[in-house]
Amino acid sequence: MRRDTNRTRVFTRRALILGGIEALALGGLAAKLYQVQVADGKRYALLAESNRVSARLLAPPRGRLLDRTGTPVAGNRMNWRAVLVAEQTDDVQGTLARFSDLIPLSDHERARIDRELLHSRRFIPIILRDFLEWDEMALIEVNAPDLPGILIDAGTTRLYPFGATLAHVVGYVAPPSEDEAEDEPVLALPGMRVGRAAVEKYHDLALRGRAGLVQVEVNAVGRVIRELAREEGVPGAEITLTIDSGLQQDVTATLADESASAVVLDARNGEVLAMATTPSFDPSLFNSGVTQAQWNEWTKNRQTPLINKAVAGLYAPGSTFKMVVAMAGLTARTITPNERIFCPGYLDLGDTRFHCWSRYGHGALDLRGGLKNSCDVFFYEVARRTGIDAIAAMANRFGLGVRPAIELPEARAGLVPTRAWRERHGHHWNPGDTVVHGIGQGFLEIAPVQLATMVARIATGRAVEPHLTRSVNGTLTPGADPGFWPALDVPAPYLHAAREGMWAVVNEQGGTAPLARLDLPGVQLAGKTGSTQVRHVSREAREHGHFNSESLPWEFRPHALFVAFAPYDAPRYALAVVVEHGNAGAQRAAPLARAIMTDVLLRDPANRSASPVPPSPVRAEAATPAAMVQTR
Amino acid sequence: MMERRLYRAEAFGLAAKLRSVSWLYVTLLALLAAVGYVALYSAGGGPQPFANRHALRFAVGLVILLATALTDLRLIQRLAWPLYGLGVGLLLAVARFGHVGKGAQRWIEIGAFQLQPSELMKIFLVLALASWFRRASWERVGNPFFLLPPALASAVPVVLILKQPNLGTAVITALVAGVVFFAAGVRWWKFALIALTIALAAPLAYHHLHDYQRARIETFLHPESDPLGTGYNIIQSKIALGSGGLWGKGFLHGTQGHLDFLPEKQTDFIFTVLAEEFGLIGALSLLGLITLIIAGGFVIALRARDPFGRLVAIGITTNYSLYVFVNLAMVMGAIPVGGVPLPLVSHGGSALLTTMFGFGLLLSVEVHRDAASERDEREPL
To answer: Does A487 reach chain B within 8 Å, measured CB to CB?
Structure first.
């Protein structure tokens, strides 16, 4: 009991000591609170009111795109804009009202601003008016005291010096969507753009670069008091394209008013030297938003100006497919190069009669004669003997029915049918189907860039892929070297037979495309015509027995195609031209091909590339401190 | 007379026990939770997403509190060591299966609910140490061999919590254990020896700290050196506190825009929300309420006759007050940031329920204050 009392006494004493310590600690906390909240309160209140640390993201300048000679095809231009930081004004609506007294805002703009005010965080600047004129800027500056929260900010606009001429290759940029801005904070900065088409889209991440971060102390009106830290961003990559902008302009001019596309490749390495599509559009219109009227005009146009027909326009290849059929037959040994097939003007298969384009027939022809005359019966027969699957396999080797590896997200694979494909769709493959595919009709769907690739591969025997990137930040892409591309898995004599046939088409008496013959000394062009009927109409026309397609309405006329390479004896350039509803390849497309190839040979763009010297690094000062984004 | 008291204690009916619960103390706790509701209402900009959940959790916590308060203290004492074993098991489980959050393994998921075993462990450790020391005479406490087992029992959870890594909770656990040792009568000079050892070992330990822990100490020493990094929280927190002034900016009129940059303002930094909106007056009122709760704990400890109850009461009260000190000192920039919430005010389910369990134990000591635990003091050493 005594010991117990002793323990209780010890406990009580020690508990009181502990209580005393805790009372001291609580008193200390109260004193500290007094110091922070009252003694230093004024200072902290001022800090809270006027000083805050903010992290500003430095929007990296978007990388430029150059053509192969170093000429800019997409660049940036400085512009000024008025932005509103909602956090920095007590009366957003009042500020906006005073602003629109100075610079009238349309209802449309007001609606957009209200929407952004509602959705974005209060410290993210909202663009009130982009592309300010000098007098507008002066007006804002003079009235700055009445416009709390409104700042003038430097931004950049994407500039496309070649406009519509290169729109389908270069693409365009547009403001990011709200979802994108949420995923990637740097995109929330005003003026940030996202590549929406073609190379701008394909290389978007590289072109964007990486945002820098500057940590600054700013006061209540957003003025920077001092910079605390700076982390430089990485400017967007400068990308040199394989395009020759001068040639591109010429090709576009040659196509003129047609709804057409043309692709010129360096046959040795697959570099796209020109890729023209007409009609086209002005890519800079997307930068600030396309008007509804403009959009309607584009989308309702039968000639589809927004579609890059060179990679996304799909056509039956027609007679340009005959080289593939020939090589498929040779490889399958269903014909020999010298074997003759008799053309009476038609081929009967069961109860169906397939006509040759020449009503009277071509008589007995070997392979070279079949190509030269573009005899349909010859290729009906080769196809019948060879079978669709062997033809499709050969077509794939030449890049047909395979999505090209080109840096255009719009590129399509097209279609080269096989038996299995037809059966997957619940149909039986008829022998008649094979015959029709022998002359490049039927289910075939091929893009012009694939035709150009096919010709380049025939011409050089290398499995080149069409591509648009020549160098990134001065580093040459490996594909620029012809040795990078593996040899095609087709025996050389068969390739030679195809080339010889194409030579005869243009250069031999009686060939189908004399209009494509070059006027240059010592250089010869080899090519092949193609005319493809717009299928559902052709059947109708046949039933009514009139074939004069010139009298048909434009959209029912056949497409005109021409593929070519030159020089014949040392192939360097490959070309494909497709004129939509141009009637006949020989009449409409061949002269265009001749004009383009003449220009190509005279310019020799493959030898006109800028030396791959690394561009001078863009200085960080050029980066536009676009806005305040307070992280955390 | 003592026999009569004992008899009465054993004859306690449930209703009588319920009446003897200190309802004044329960009211103080409810007031504190109400302050939390107000703060969370402001932090969340309305009853969602924090405030209503806080109220619901407090209701659940109240049930736990009463159930614990009505549990016979002797039963609790018998369960002390098994519970300690459970706590260590949970800590080992968290090390093995735990949820990795913010670079530390601290939680395990039990159904929909996250359990933070280190919180429970502190209470279980208090129970275990109190159970050990309840029979210790003054002479016995002086025997170093008698102190070895409880010292080991304290070291195991401290090391496990350090490994998570959670420096703040480990330090609090060690301090709580130390206070129980102290209250049990361990000699002064032994504490002085330990303090000296720590002072000498500190530079070495600093070397083995995690980078983020070292960063916290660095920032504490020079907060302005890294205004956007670790020091940012302290600066923003002090600005929020300081701009509240004497009277505050008024309910819901705190500059939320600034506090948006304070991470976890609904948990660790909840005090800044209150202090900004209600000023020094509000902050001191809250401090007053907290002082009453701590003082109440001491009163309960001093009134308890049974050594086990006294030590439990001291341990629980110390645990709570350490939480408050660390949290408040942290938001005022007086000690390094430690990831410690303000109990019953901060948002967070596991911490609230554990806190209520602790206060339930405290009230159980109060309810059974006249009962003595089984005495085995007469047993030979």
So the answer is: no
Burial class (CB in 10 A: 0-12, 13-18, 19+), B53: middle
Are A273 and A355 found together in one domain?
yes
Nearest CA in chain B to A11: B183
DSSP A555-612: GGSPEEEEEEEE-SSS--EEEEEEETT-S-IIIIIHHHHHHHHHHHHHH-GGG-PPP-
Is residue A1 in some structural domain? Answer: no
Q: From the list B179, B257, B334, which residue is nearest A32 (CB)?
A: B334
CA distance to partner chain B, nearest, from residue A12 (Å): 6
In tens digits, what is the pLDDT along chain B, a chain of 381 residues?
A: 444 454 455 555 777 888 888 899 999 999 999 999 998 888 877 787 888 989 999 999 999 999 999 998 889 999 999 999 999 998 888 877 766 554 455 666 554 456 678 888 999 999 999 999 988 777 788 888 888 999 999 999 999 988 777 777 888 899 999 999 999 888 888 888 888 888 888 788 777 777 777 776 666 555 555 554 556 677 777 777 877 778 877 777 665 444 455 656 777 888 888 888 898 999 999 999 999 999 999 999 999 988 899 999 999 999 999 999 988 988 888 777 667 889 999 887 788 889 999 999 999 999 888 765 544 444 333
| Beta carbons of B134 and B373 less than 8 angstroms apart | yes
Q: Residue A632 and residue B240: Cβ atoms within 8 Å?
A: no
> A2-34 and B307-331 are packed helices; what angle lies between their axes, rounded to 10 degrees?
10
Are A132 and A278 within one domain?
Answer: no
Q: Please tell me if residue A50 touches chain B, with a CB cutoff of 8 Å.
A: no
Residue A155 distance to chain B (closest CA, Å)? 26
- CATH number (domain holding residue A206): 3.90.1310.10
**Torsion angles phi and psi, residue B246, rounded to 5:** -75, -45
A259 with A215, same domain: the answer is no
Residue to substitute from A22, A40, A52, interface B, most B β-carbons within 10 A: A22
Active-site positions of A read 319
Min Cα distance A27 → chain B (Å) is 9
Residues A194 and A281 in one domain: no
**B373 neighbors B74 (Cβ within 8 angstroms):** yes
Which backbone phi and psi does A337 adopt, to 5 degrees? Answer: -55, -30
Torsion sign over Cα B137, B141, B143, B147: positive
- Asked if A44 reaches chain B (Cβ–Cβ under 8 Å), the answer is yes
Residues 6+ apart with CB under 8 A from A131: A79, A80, A81, A157, A288
Does some domain include residue A151? Answer: yes
pTM for this entry: 0.59
Please report whether residue A17 resides in a domain. Answer: no
Q: Is A227 on the interface with B (CB under 8 A)?
A: no
